[in-house]
Amino acid sequence: MKACIRGGLAGAEVDMAGAIALATGMGVEPATAAPLLAACAEGIRLARQDRAEREEEAGE
Length: 60
Description:
The protein is 80% helix and 0% strand.
């Protein structure tokens, strides 16, 4: 799970179905894995948006 999150933060695209399968294979219940990974995906999206805004401001 941590590798999945680190990969997402590094800019890798995360396939949600594959990530859920990986998490459940590591012993995480699917009912827990799906919302956890969705929250991680939202955090990644917000981090990317923030980075893009900072890069845009720096370029002005």
